[in-house]
Write a structure and sequence with these properties.
CATH architecture: Alpha-Beta Barrel
CATH topology: Multidrug-efflux Transporter 1 Regulator Bmrr, Chain A
Helix content: 10-25%
Number of helices: 2
Structural class: alpha+beta
Pfam families: SOUL
Radius of gyration: 16 Å
InterPro entries: Reg_factor_effector_dom_sf (IPR011256), SOUL_heme-bd (IPR006917)
Order of helices and strands: EEEEHEEEEEEEHEEE
Shape: globular
Number of strands: 14
């Protein structure tokens, strides 16, 4: 069974849940392309990295989910989501739990970068279906509305998490919209 990014459920609502994700490391690739093609474009160099296209040619276990974040601007120190341009996306593999930047192999491809992700509180909406921009936008709007109604405050941009390979029938796919949040002010 594929390892999943580690989290604990802090609170459940009818349409979403609040999770606390443990700190981890992401392997990222920034790609140019529309929402539907970005996942495939980013997947190839990332699968190469975990398959041994690194120094010292080490294999790394595949984990879930594969994360896609639409971006338009990248901070100087690391990929940071700021706003959606629709043409640039960060595709990320979550590295296995407990791995640190220092312990991970160095990517051989200049397309792959590594970044530490701190502990995060994230609102998550789970759904099945196709991987396309209209589905993504609909579920983002629904989750943003549910977050606001519940009193939480968005604290970052939405990301799309895919848990299944592309050959999984669309109606059986596990997908999530994840939005970092801050706790409500009382």
């Amino acid at each position: 069974m594929t390892e999943e990014q580690k989290y604990t459920v802090e609170r459940k609502f009818p349409m979403f849940e609040v999770r606390r994700y443990e700190p981890c490391v992401f392997a990222d690739v920034i790609v140019n392309g529309d929402f539907e093609s970005a996942g495939s474009l980013g997947f190839r160099p990332l699968i190469g990295y975990i398959s041994g296209n690194n120094q010292p040619n080490s294999k790394i276990a595949m984990t879930a989910p594969v994360i896609q974040e639409p971006v338009s601007k990248i901070a100087m120190t690391s990929p940071v989501l700021q706003q959606n341009s629709g043409q640039k996306n960060i595709i990320s593999f979550v590295m296995p739990a407990g791995m640190t930047l220092e312990a991970l192999p160095i990517p051989s491809s200049s397309k792959v970068s590594l970044r530490e992700v701190p502990e995060q509180l994230i609102a998550v909406s789970r759904f099945s279906g196709r991987w396309n921009m209209s589905t993504y936008m609909k579920h983002v709007a629904d989750l943003e509305s549910n977050i606001a109604e519940s009193g939480f405050i968005p604290n970052g941009s939405p990301r799309f998490a895919r848990f299944d390979p592309p050959w999984t029938p669309w109606f059986m796919r596990r997908n999530e919209i994840q939005i970092p949040i801050a706790t409500p002010t009382q």
